[in-house]
Write a structure and sequence with these properties.
This protein has six helices and no strands. The protein is an all-alpha fold. The longest helix is centred in the middle third of the chain and has 49 residues, at about 70-120. It has helices at about 5-30, 35-65, 70-120, 120-125, 130-170, 175-210. It starts with a helix and ends with a helix. It has a single domain (about 30-210), classed as ABC transporter transmembrane region fold (Up-down Bundle), CATH 1.20.1560.10. Helix 2 (about 35-65) runs antiparallel to helix 3 (about 70-120).
Amino acid sequence: MSEASASSDDSTFRPRRLWVSLRRIFRLGWPYRYRLAGALLLTVLGAAVALVVPLGLRELVDAVFQKENRALLDTLTLVLIVLFVLRSAAAFGGKYLLGWTGERVVADLRKKVYRHLHRQSLRFFEDHRTGDLTSRLTNDVGSVRSAVKDALSNMLTQALSLVGSVVLMVVLNWRLSLIIFLIVPAVTGFAVYFGRKIRALARDIQDRLADTTA
């Protein structure tokens, strides 16, 4: 198979591999599902509050420069303070619970990998470099922690922010939204291009780490 066709197959099945990876992560985190669910709920709450804050700021500016309503200004200021505190508390709680879950998942996964290695024959260790096995136990398993702590939270937050932002833009000014939508394909193209470069560099780093510990 040529390199071009291999690249095409890789891009075709990448979404499927993404969902397979997510299912595996949720399976590993199932023993801690209540904490994980709480973390996701707090993440959703923080993202929702973040979308409301710009509307509050707009009303605050209107109250100062257009309506000159002192009572409304005081009320909106208090509401914004409450929203900022709520957003910070939700973000902290979500990060804490995801961090705790990620550490527990990594600990369980390392135990499973360690027990699996102990059941292998001597031939297995002759055929595989020590650096590769060490890299699996440290770097690759550690990547699962990042997936639980950062990737899962960021994916959910950014998805909600994207949908909410699009709705708000269309409601507030649909003409300006059309201009922004015309720019989105170019930005997406750059993101996809550099994302592939970063993934290639990440794989190269993992291989080099394995070589250094071999």
